[in-house]
Amino acid sequence: MKLLKRFNVKKNERGLLYSEGDFVAILEPGAYRHLDLGNRLSVETFSLNTPQFEHRLAGYLRQSEPELVERYFTRMDLAENEAGLRYEDGVLAEILAPGSRRLYWKGQTEQRLERIDLSQDYRVAPALLQQLQGNLRGRSVIGAEAILVVQVPAYQVGVLKVDGAVIELLPAGPHGFWRYNRQVNVELIDMRTQALEVSGQEILTRDKVSLRLNLAANWRYSDVLMAFSQLSKPLEHLYRELQFGLRAAVGTRSLDELLENKQVIDESVGAYLKERMAGTGIEVSGLGVRDIILPGEMKTLLAQVVEAEKAAQANVIRRREETSATRSLLNTAKVMEDNPTALRLKELETLERVAERIDRISVFGGLDQVLNGLVTLKQA
């Protein structure tokens, strides 16, 4: 039996010496020889490459061995209203949650704790946010999910909500907020004019004709804080109001009224929205009905109506032209009756039309004989 037991602790290690499983001492790097008659001694070693000391003896050492803790460990204890930034050799390595109690081995890396008072503000300081973003690009920071980092693009604002309450608007740029002890979220809002489509609305007219309509509206936020303080979901609210306005405009009018003046729908819905959306922080700059789709059988009936109307109009025009032509002939006859010269010209015109249809003409007795013969035929 070996009475002398030897233990080795490497230069990048620390050791815990036990006697019958009970803590005795902390061993620094080196070779140790101990007389062990009953094989009661043992050593547990820890690599300094993993500086955090997570062990069942951590609580005992804090309470009963404060001098050993001060000598061998860096102590990081946080209150319930504090967050911690742990730096290793000057580089941010971890974000510690409120109430954390940690021990880190001294000797290989320099451990430093920076405390953040969460009771003062939920914002992350700009310098810390810049440092955190720089670290996030090159390496992972443990516990980084504790900070909400938001990049607000140009032409947009961020609606900051803390524990469900709207707090303020965030301008374009980076922003960071602590998530500990509160619920924080940011909703990005585009401040430019946007289009909203209300499609496929099946609505009955006053005379019970089913129509399908598509409406388009241009809108923007005129006051974002007002919109979100009064409406839980502003865009959904605007969509519903467009639906209600469209149904009110169509349901109170007949099909003929709508087809004769499609602009009446736009005017009616616009007036409805002006009243309903006043003071909500949403501005509708323009709207219009894109399509009015009729059922198949109604299209056939309307086509027949249009065809009958056009046929009647054509008949009226034809009768008007016939009356005008008859009146013209009557006037011409009266002129020729009172004017022999006009009658002579008409005879020559008739002769010209006859000559156009005959390839060859033989004249006997001269041209006067032909004209006299035509006159004689006409009088007969």
Automatic annotation (TrEMBL):
Residues 147-306 form the Band domain. SUPFAM superfamilies: Band 7/SPFH domain (SSF117892). Belongs to the band 7/mec-2 family. GO terms for cellular component: plasma membrane. It comes from the Bacteria. This is Band 7 domain-containing protein. CDD domains: SPFH_eoslipins_u2 (cd13438). It is found in: Membrane. It is a single-pass membrane protein.
